[in-house]
Every structure is written in structure tokens, then in C-alpha cells.
Amino acid sequence: MCTGVALYDTGHIRPLDAFQAGKSFFEAIGIPITGATYYEHLSDGDHEGDHDIFEVSIDELQERILSEKTSSFWIYSDLRGGKPWDAAFTYQTGEFGNFAHMGAHCDIKPEEVYGALTDWLGEAAERFDVPYGIFYTADDIPDALHYAAGESCVFMFPFEDCFAFIHEAPGRYGGKGRYTESMLRMVYPYNLLNEKHMQIKIADQTLRDWIHESGERGTLRPIAKDSWVWEVMDKHLVAVNQACGEAGILVAWRPERPKKRVRKLP
Question: How much is the pLDDT for 264?
Fold first, then answer.
């Protein structure tokens, strides 16, 4: 079981600041960095936007970022030798076929790293003014990183449309990105929200008031200016997602389809 964090609408964050956030992520989880990769356009590519990924040391990556030769990149730890990695941090600008976001993933059970990762997430939110972030679990590192980017039809809930998020995200599909203001992707154990999220209407109430109305809807606490953390216990996630999904405020909500009745042959 792996743990993942995704931060969205991060295009305003400078590559060097993202690089420092990536290094602090590895410090927070206590795993050393063993390598890095960066993205670069191919001048001889068959199509506009063709690119490749190049392996470098962490020091070389820092030099490339300082000299403004590199924007999107990965930092990773590969102690076991071979993929999937033990941990990875990515910073994507949207320049290479994706959309602007940051992701931090580690092959550690959520209960073992929850405090360290949520502290790191809170610090990142306060420092960079990140409008939206999620904390989730996945089967392995590839699933965790694909989920952050909305790729490969990875989903966390059986009632989740695995294609809906990537079509909502800016980038190749030109989505509106409403999850940063007027909707949520889904509801997770740990959700980083902004004040506009707090004003979303659900059952004729603001989301803030709706959460405060019942302890089973989780807890809400401020962590920075106009930033809030919404924590929901695992045992209440299904009910909370269902209520929010039926209210129309979840991007990836997929109502359960009624089972078709099988007609018996005469």
C-alpha cells in the first residue's frame, strides 16, 4: 500500500521553489534521494511538443533549474534497485502534454507516514498558496503517480469515474479546472481546500456549515490564510462522498447504476 499527495493549480510556483519542496518531502519521510530526471523538447521530433526524459544526479538537476534550462522534473529514491521507486516527487508545468501540478508519493503505509506528510502538505500550502490538494492511498507507486495526473484510468473508489478528472483538468483536454474553486475531485481522508471551496453549496448550506453540522462529516481546521484542511475518517468516506456526489459537487462522482434484471429463458 502506497501513499500519495497531489497539489493542483501550481503553475505559479517557480521550478526552484518546487525543487526545494521536493527535497523537503524526502526529508519529511526519511528516505534519501538517489536520482532525478528532467523533461526536454526534442528538436528533431516528428510532432510539435515531442519530448524525452533524461536521467541526472540531484546536483545536476539543481544546476539545470538554476540556469533555467529545466522546468518539469522528477526526484526519486530507488534503494531497492528497479522500479517502482521507493518514493518520488514530480513537478509538472503543463509544458509537456500534462497540466500544472505537483505530486509526492512513497511506498509507505498511510498510517506510518500520515503525520509527516500532512505536516509537509500544510507547510507547502502555506508557503506556496496552493488552492487544492488531496492525500490518498494506492496499490503501488505507479498507481499513485498516475492518479495524481488523472492517467491510466486509476481510481480510488468504486463510485468514481476514472476519466472525468483528466477531462476536467486544463491541458490536453482544455478542462475548466473547477476543482480548484467550485467543486472537488472526490472526498479523501485529507483534503486541502480554499475559501471558495468553503462557499460551495450543498443541501442549501455552505460546505463549511454542512461539515460542521455532523461529526461524521469530518473535521475542518484552518492552516494558512484562506486555506483549510478537511479530514474525514475512512469509515465515513463512502457516506460523505455519496452526499457530496448526489449534491453535484464532485467532478469524478459516478452514481451506481442499477443492476439490470436478467430475464430467465422460458
Answer: 45
Q: Where are the alpha helices (DSSP H) in the chain?
A: 15-29, 58-66, 110-128, 141-149, 164-168, 195-198, 207-212, 237-246
Kindly state the cell numbers that stand for 26: 524526502
Residue 123 backbone dihedrals phi, psi, to 5 degrees = -65, -40
- Three-state DSSP class for 28? helix
Query: What's at 140, amino acid-wise?
Result: D
| Model confidence at 52: pLDDT above 90 | no
The residue type found at 51 is H
Q: Which helix (H) or strand (E) holds 235?
A: none
Three-state SS for 38-98 is EEEECCCCCCCCCEEEEEECHHHHHHHHHCCCCCCEEEEECCCCCCCCCEEEEEECCCCCC
- Grid cell, residue 218, equals 469530518
Model pLDDT for residues 76-110, shown as the tens digit of each residue: 999 877 667 899 999 999 887 679 999 999 999 99
The answer, yes or no, to whether the previous bond of 84 is cis (omega within 30 of 0) is yes
Answer whether 105's CB lies under 8 Å from 148's CB: yes
Neighbours of 80 (CB within 10 A): 10
pLDDT band at 122 (very low <50, low <70, confident <90, very high): confident
Beta-strand pair 73-77/87-92: antiparallel
Residue 165, all three cell numbers:
478528472
> What angle is formed at CA 153 by the lines to CA 149 and CA 155, rounded to 5 degrees?
85
Whose cell is 471558495? That residue is: 196
**DSSP SS3 for 234:** helix
227: phi then psi, degrees, rounded to nearest 5:
-125, 140
Distance CA 44, CA 40 (A): 12
pLDDT (mean) for 38-44: 74
What angle, rounded to 10 degrees, do the helices at 15-29 and 110-128 form? 150
Max intra-chain CA distance, the chain: 76
